[in-house]
Amino acid sequence: MRARLALLVAAVSVLTLIAFLVPLALLVRTVAQDRATVRATADAQSLVPVVGTADAPTIRLTVEQLAAESGRQVSVFLPDGTVLGAQAPRTPAVALAVRGQSLTGESAAGREVVIAVQGRADGTGVIRIVVPRQELTAGVTRAWLVLALLGVVLVLIGLAVADRLARTLVRPIGDLSAVSHRLANAELDARVTPAGPAELREVAGALNHLAGRIQVLLAQEREQVADLSHRLRTPLTALRLEAESLRDPDDAARIAAAADGLERAVTGLIQQARWRRGPTPGTAASDAAAIVADRVAFWSVLAEDTGRAVHLDLAPGPISVGVPADDLAAAVDALLGNVFAHTPDGTPFTVRLARDDGEVLLTVADEGPGMPSGAVRRGASAAGSTGLGLDIARRAAQAGGGRLELRSGPEGGAQVLLRLGPPTSLREA
């Protein structure tokens, strides 16, 4: 922006100076020519009394003396055809002067001043003085250089003033940009100091007000989520008591384990809602092999009840990924839950965990009807669910420096690929 403002001021300054300096330069040249012509005319007028009354030797002496003093070509044409002083041919201007007309004309040697002298007994004499072009332009070049230097100085002064003014605009805009980036990085306590013109101060105040409102709304949302999570503890306690009252020890242990897992998830939700800022993506680490094996074992009970064949292919662990254990477990649960929610009973599925070019690739594939396009959008679902499952997996992958990919299987069905990066410490190593 500073460069554009400087370019604009430079363009305006140059155009303004051209509009003034070009006519002024032409005027300087005209004045110099007129000044030289006036001096030559005055010298010629000084010869008029001598040419009109004196004899030829006196005229010759006076002409030679004037030519030596002025450095110009001085010629006197007498009526009898005699030329005194500088020998020169009779030019059309001299022919006109013989008829009694004094004038100034241009010639190849410069500007000639011709004066007719009447009153001689033998006729009309003519005085001719040639002003050389060097004299006509004397001082013009220096004056033009001074004007050009003055124009450059004025442009530089204009650029300096424009840069100073632009700085008063650019600096507040830069502060606004920096604070907006800090807000985008979840630094909600960032504020900008209003500065600059009134419009920028108004924008700064609006940005500060927006940041304050975001803080208030997020605090309210965290409190609401935390309150809702606390309310879930009561039915979880009741569910655990019901599990303890079951006669079958296996069923009681399975339901108690599910209740414990749900309670851990609720506890994590409360902690995340209470935290002002979450951990930096990629700094947490977990063993993907252990977590995937644990979650597949959990879902295998339901798979057995619904007649689904589970194919598990895990690379030997431990396999460290840059995703917290709770987030990775939630992502695996979301992917496996989608298989049970969107495929009919008896549909087999495969869970594969492997290393792939420095990444960890988790693949969940089924032989069901496939997945509609756009299913990864948050809140989008074609089966009446909340549509948050794939979004949970996507955010977990992004937190680990990876991504979520959806594909169709070679024989139909859906393939969900979760690419996870290593922890930050391993990346830097």
Automatic annotation (TrEMBL):
Its main location: membrane. SMART domains: HAMP, HATPase_c, HisKA. The keyword Endoplasmic reticulum does not apply. The keyword Nucleotide-binding does not apply. GO terms for cellular component: plasma membrane. Keywords: Kinase, Membrane, Phosphoprotein, Transferase, Transmembrane, Transmembrane helix, Two-component regulatory system. Residues 227-424 form the Histidine kinase domain. The chain crosses the membrane at residues 143-162. Its EC number is 2.7.13.3. It catalyses: ATP + protein L-histidine = ADP + protein N-phospho-L-histidine. It is found in: Cell membrane. It is an enzyme of class 2 (transferase). Signal peptide: none annotated. GO terms for molecular function: phosphorelay sensor kinase activity. SUPFAM superfamilies: ATPase domain of HSP90 chaperone/DNA topoisomerase II/histidine kinase, HAMP domain-like, Homodimeric domain of signal transducing histidine kinase. Residues 167-219 form the HAMP domain. This is histidine kinase. It comes from Micromonospora lupini str. Lupac 08. The lineage of its organism: Bacteria, Bacillati, Actinomycetota, Actinomycetes, Micromonosporales.
